[in-house]
Design goal:
single chain, about 180 residues, alpha+beta, 8-stranded mixed sheet, 11 strands
Length: about 180
């Protein structure tokens, strides 16, 4: 069965800049294995799939090549851009406010066009959850660094998709 999709360059003012994301429409019946395969086929970091929602105006799911992720910024921007571009969200009379259900929950969204006609997207993510401090040594070792290269203890932070953050002591450590 054919699926309609848009290739969107999020965070960019010109094509082939920013973060590319394929947004597949009416993908509720597309099996997860096919969603994952499409991400691999496109060589994109993530793809977005519009799915039905019982609790929001629109539903979307985001996938890496090997798993679903509950939330990510650039697929959200790409999804909203696609909805506006296709006329599924009308911004002709000013900003449009609606909800988007993603794996992490329901996001309030505002979409508009600026004076140059570019689509602008604002989303309200969940309040950040900040985990306990972690031992810097094993995390630094992943990147070939020493524990003393880490300025502050790493922590797991999440606004929907958990990731590890830290601060390095120097630009030299970052280069390495």
């Amino acid at each position: 069965m054919p699926y309609s999709f848009d290739w969107v360059d999020a965070f960019a003012e010109a094509p082939f800049g920013g973060n590319a994301c394929a947004v597949v429409h009416e993908a509720g019946g597309l099996p997860v294995e096919d969603r994952l395969a499409l991400v691999r086929e496109t060589s994109l970091s993530e793809c977005a799939y519009l799915v039905p929602s019982q609790i929001a105006d629109f539903g979307a799911r985001y996938y890496l090549a090997h798993r679903e992720i509950p939330m990510a910024g650039h697929p959200t921007v790409a999804t909203v851009t696609s909805l506006v571009s296709r006329g599924l969200v009308d911004v002709s009379a000013g900003p449009a406010r609606f909800t988007l259900e993603v794996g992490a929950g329901v996001l309030p969204i505002e979409a508009s066009r600026d004076a140059q006609g570019r689509i602008r997207v604002a989303m309200t993510q969940a309040r950040p959850e900040i985990g306990a401090a972690l031992d810097p040594a094993p995390i630094a070792a992943i990147y070939g660094l020493e524990a003393q290269d880490v300025a502050h203890p790493p922590r797991i932070v999440s606004t929907g998709t958990p990731f590890c953050i830290t601060l390095l002591r120097s630009r030299e450590a970052l280069r390495r």
